[in-house]
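[audit] Reproducing an earlier prediction to check determinism. Same input, same settings, fresh worker. If the tokens differ from the archived copy the diff job will pick it up downstream; this log only records the rerun itself.
[audit] input (407 residues):
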Amino acid sequence: MTFPRPHRSDVFLASTGLAGGLVLWSLGVFNQGAKHAVLDATWLVLLPLAVMTALEFLRRTMPRTVLLIGTVAVVADQFTRGSLATLLMFTDLVYAAVVYGPPASARRIPVVTGSITVAVAIATLAWYREPWALLLGIMTGMVSFVPATTGAVVRNHRQAAEAARLRAEQTALLAEMDRREAVVAERSRMARELHDMVAGNLSAIAIHSTAALSLDDPDTSREALGVIRENSVEGLAEMRRLIALLRDGGTDEPAPAPTLSGLASLVRQAAASGAASGLTFRLTAPPPDGELPAPVELAAYRIVQESLTNALKHADAGEVTVVVDRAEHALTVTVTSPFDREAAGPRAPGAGAGLVGMRERVALLGGEFAAGPYDGDAGPGGDGAGRTAWRVRAVLPVAEDDKEPET
């Protein structure tokens, strides 16, 4: 059987105890006189002292075994002249058994030592029938009960400190998880804003640049170049506003969030971009009353903006209708555009990001979102014919408490 390497503090305690015991033995200083000792030979004092010294090396690794053997050694020491160093090292073994032992031992040892202290005090008082006999009970308590209770206090403090450390680590872990979730949410929001702000302009530029390259008509090319320039300037302005919002320590004032009052301008811009493709646009929306919360207005604006962008990229020639219906507890946005399912080609790489962004915006507000082919009264999906429409519908709830206060 191999024993673990003792701690430096244990080596120091063992060496100090042995040295002190040897000094006391050499000076002839003992706990009791020769007439009171059962075994008068002074060299016998060294046996319990040597046992206690050896046990000090194992006080952390084998606390219960060390305490049992130490109890036998200290009892044996009482039959000799006795050494103060042996008693002091025993008190350390009791303390170590409570601090380093299992939880059950830490709870029982103070109770047992307290019971022994009371029993010794009562027994000696009954035997000698003198008040000084209580001193034996007090000495027993100082050797056993006091170090046991001291060890219990130290152990409780250590456990409290460990629990506080674990709570601090858990709090830091939760804070880090919250920070990561906030970063992910902010990145998603930035991605939606970037897509909604710039995708429409870039789509218009791509459509009209294709028209300018494919048609050998100076007037058509000039008109397409005008639309391209207009969308380029608008896209650049949107990018600058987004960069100003993201720049740390920027001096630019944050741009106000888009509202429903800007839908008419948005539809006019889409009409200018889609004229060459045979698209017309019609807007039906209630006049702005300033009572909608800002998140709802921003979501409605972005949904219309993305729907118009998709119409410019994918819709057939015809009318695109934008209907914004304001009810008491909800705002409904519906955008319908011509769509030919049989003529629809393969989706371009990256397609569908706009639908994902719209769905996320509606989900954040606890609303309902649907997008897909639509055949009027026949319901979503059509009747299987090729010619149908593409409809985007979002229902954004508006609670009474969320309304902007009237000024």
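[audit] rerun output stored. Observation attached for the diff report: Strands lie at 279-284, 318-326, 330-340, 368-374, 387-397.
[audit] end
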